[in-house]
Amino acid sequence: MNLPKILLFSALLLLNIAFVVAWFRAGMHRSVRERPTPVDILIGFGTDFFDALGIGSFASTTAIYKLRGQPRDDLIPGTLNVGHNAAAFVEVVIFVTSVAVDPLLLAMMVGSAACGAWLGAGIVTRLPRRAIQVFMGLSLMIAAIIFAMSNLGVMPAGGVARGLLGWEFAFAVAGNFAFGALMSVGIGLYAPCMIMLALLGLHPLAAFPIMMGSCGLVQPAASLRFLKSGRFAWGPAIGLTIGGVAGVLIAIFVVKQLPLGALRWLVTVVALYASISMLRSARVSALT
């Protein structure tokens, strides 16, 4: 294993140790903790199952939460980052070790996303509920448009390169910093990162370790802020953790491939529904 990957896995391990310790300490100082329900676990299984196949989990989980009416909107970003973290860890270990990509590009993009998430989470934990609703609503609307364009073949399918050079390298690193920051308001990194790398000529398969490595570091980095502030839902987050790991393992080692075209259209509709629901909630908050 080369040096950039060794550094990536070292950072991944250290951040996740800090994540576990912070979650344990948060639990020790909390008098009442929600227990995950079977539905919480099922949501984690389903959303991370499709996440491992390249669909992403944030938009679909948000839509389900809006449909159920829980947890509260201001707790959704923290719940997504904390709850999906374990599944992201498993995905990183599997994909980064099995898919070829320029190790320097991988390390720099993952590191920049983690820095963006750390700074972004610090801002999100101080935002009022309506601001979070507006941010998530607009961002999910953009995500739905991007998914639709990708499904219609408007967006590029990608090139053949396994690495980037010069301004393309710098642009990709800077772009991933922004995507990492947006994850702090509950916006998934997969779709915008994959599209950006395709525009820059990277092979579609090479985007997978970058996307999953980014989420693997972004989520524990952002989660440390959410765990400190307490702005996440305990029961749903634990449910996502339990179900998510099982979903990832079955997707990668058992199912491996599904008709993803139809599933991407489903995710587009789901993201659009979540966007409209979130913006309606923001409007109601403004009127009350």
In short:
By secondary structure, the chain is mainly alpha-helical. It has one domain (3-26, 35-287). The protein has helices at 3-28, 38-52, 58-68, 76-83, 85-98, 103-124, 129-151, 166-182, 190-199, 207-229, 234-255, 260-287.
Question: What order do the helices and strands come in, and which of them pair?
Answer:
Blueprint: H1 3-28, H2 38-52, H3 58-68, H4 76-83, H5 85-98, H6 103-124, H7 129-151, H8 166-182, H9 190-199, H10 207-229, H11 234-255, H12 260-287
Describe the fold and architecture.
The protein has 288 residues and is mostly helical. The protein has one domain. The protein has 12 helices and no strands. It is globular. The relative contact order is 0.22. The mean pLDDT is 79.
